[in-house]
Amino acid sequence: MTDNSFWTCPPETVVRSANSDEYTLTLLDPPQPESTAELPPHDRVRARAFAEAFPTVDAVLEELPPMPASEALYAETLSDLDLITIGCWGHVTRISDPALATYDAGMTPVLHEATALHKRHPGALIVGSAAPDFGETHTEDVICLPDGPALSASGFPAYETPWHVDGDPHTILDALGIDPADLTDEDREDLSLDEEPHLTNWGMLGGLVLDHCGRRLRSGLEMSVFRVRHTEGYTSLMEEMWMWTR
After folding, report:
1. Is 49 helix (H, G, I), strand (E, B) or coil?
2. Could you give the CA distance from residue 170 to residue 27 in angstroms, rounded to a whole number?
3. Residue 128 reports pLDDT greater than 90
4. How far apart are CA 235 and CA 198, in angstroms?
5. Which of 134, 122, 121, 143 is closest to 215 using CA atoms?
6. Which distant-in-sequence residues (6+ apart) come within 8 Å of 42 by Cβ?
């Protein structure tokens, strides 16, 4: 452990690749759904405040130059796991944080942090997704509607069990006025909403909800990059998941 982190290994330690940049939470504040207005430029001040208040973060240590919203960070060394990105574009806020890609011992960090955000932002629609692949892909997807139903699903798509699903995807779509009949045959086949949980594309469902409700990132948008100290608890979990050996 150093003064700037709770890691027990040197910052240059090589970590396993998650083979995915998907560990995000997105909030859409009112008005929504079906907001089609062009998103405004990124708000760096609001992004820093969001980072400082996010429960996985113990402290923001440094703000790095912003990066395009269309790009993603990939972790190669332990120090890369201290980097998070946050985009604040009007009613849309998106955070990408490697701490959300932990599922050891039944952990559900996406659900945990989405639930905490829902308490702070009850009027927001919140969609979270993590799909790390440390040899086998594990997915966790969460959709929380404002003052309405919620859905969470987690498991290994390669296996029928164990899967943990709470909520009904059709209830989510109905609440937002999304008719599956309006989707293309290919999209309906890819979603597989009426199949077994391991065959359902839960991440695609979250993306459909976000796009329907106005998360349309135009070219030229930026997002903030922060180096943070994660909390001691999340740092320990990340070491278990991301390190080659323990």
Report:
1. helix
2. 21
3. yes
4. 29
5. 143
6. 66, 69, 87, 88, 89, 221, 222, 223, 224
**Six token digits for residue 193:** 């909403």
Q: Indicate the length of the chain as a whole number.
A: 246
Non-local CB neighbours of 16 within 8 Å, separated by 6+ positions: 134, 242, 243, 244
DSSP code string of 101-160: S--GGG--HHHHHHHHHHHH-TTSEEEEEE--BSSSB-EEEEEE-TTS-EEEEEE-TTSS
The residue that leads in pLDDT, 20 or 137, is: 137
Q: From CA 99, how far away is CA 103, in angstroms rounded? A: 10
| Reported confidence tier of residue 215, pLDDT bands at 50, 70, 90 | confident
Q: Count the neighbouring beta carbons within 10 Å of the beta carbon of residue 68.
A: 13
DSSP-derived 3-state class of residue 56:
coil
- Which pLDDT score, from 0 to 100, does residue 181 have? 83
Q: Two tokens at 150?
A: 């919620």
For residue 186, CA distances in Å to 36, 183, 211, 213 come to 24, 8, 17, 21
pTM of the predicted model as reported, rounded to 2 decimal places: 0.92
- Taking the alpha carbons at both ends of the chain, their separation in whole angstroms is 15
Q: Is 163 exposed, middle or buried (0-12, 13-18, 19+ CB in 10 A)?
A: middle
135 pLDDT band, cuts 50/70/90, is confident
